[in-house]
Design a protein that fits this description.
2 strands, mainly alpha
């Protein structure tokens, strides 16, 4: 049974690679223009422009504007890993008779089932609205006020959040597009995520790096030593 699953999964991986090779090459510019056909980039850009405008109005630039964004950049690979593992790969379950599942987890399972379904590549817009309100606004404002940060410092952190998440959405979209890697750095990122989708969903959770958090947290094994999963396209097996 194990050999059968391994063979089927390996065939799936090989078929995906052949399918990509057969498609006409697309340019980075064309991919960038296609990226803007979806709501997520516009929503993030609106937040970015609004926060930037607010930061320019407040003024009073200081070294304190740098520390929080620098901390965010340093921690982001691990935040990304944590969200991917514990939120996107959440296994639905019943606790005290209550069925617990989320839109993000459901759509991520659909994304694994159909990695080339472009709308599923993006964070669902309804979830993104809540993310902007809670993580993008309420959380930094609340924490900033608690630690005594100035309005300018809070806005600088919010600006860094918007930029970082915009990079995440663009990188994830680019990986799943028909654009073929040219640089060594991007090819490493691209390959890392394809291993997650087509080799084994229990590893390679990084999106915007070539495995920074995976290497630290033990989810970046040698692909040759990892069995090809039979559930990479159906997370948790029986769960739809």
């Amino acid at each position: 049974m194990t050999d059968h699953v391994e063979r089927l999964a390996q065939e799936r991986l090989s078929a995906a690679e052949r399918d990509l090779a057969r498609r006409p090459a697309v340019t980075l510019g064309a991919t960038w223009r296609a990226f803007w056909r979806y709501p997520s980039p516009w929503m993030i850009s609106a937040v970015l422009v609004g926060v930037l405008a607010g930061r320019l109005v407040v003024g009073q630039w200081a070294l304190g504007d740098l520390w929080a964004p620098l901390v965010l950049v340093a921690l982001y690979p691990f935040i990304e890993w944590t969200v991917h593992v514990f939120i996107l790969h959440w296994r639905p379950r019943r606790i005290a008779g209550l069925y617990l599942d989320t839109r993000l987890a459901r759509d991520h399972r659909r994304h694994h089932a159909e990695p080339r379904d472009v709308p599923l590549v993006f964070v669902p817009w309804r979830s993104l609205i809540w993310g902007i309100l809670i993580v993008g606004c309420a959380l930094p404002i609340g924490v900033g006020l608690l630690v005594g940060a100035s309005p300018g410092e809070i806005l600088s952190f919010m600006l860094a959040e918007a930029v970082t998440f915009g990079i995440y959405e663009w990188t994830h979209y680019l990986i799943h597009s028909d654009y073929r890697p040219k640089s060594r750095a991007y090819k490493a990122i691209w390959r890392n995520h394809r291993l997650h989708h087509y080799k084994n969903e229990h590893y390679w959770f990084s999106i915007t790096t070539s495995g920074t958090s995976d290497r630290v947290l033990g989810t970046h094994p040698d692909p040759a030593k990892v069995p090809t999963s039979g559930t990479a396209k159906n997370l948790h097996g029986e769960v739809a």
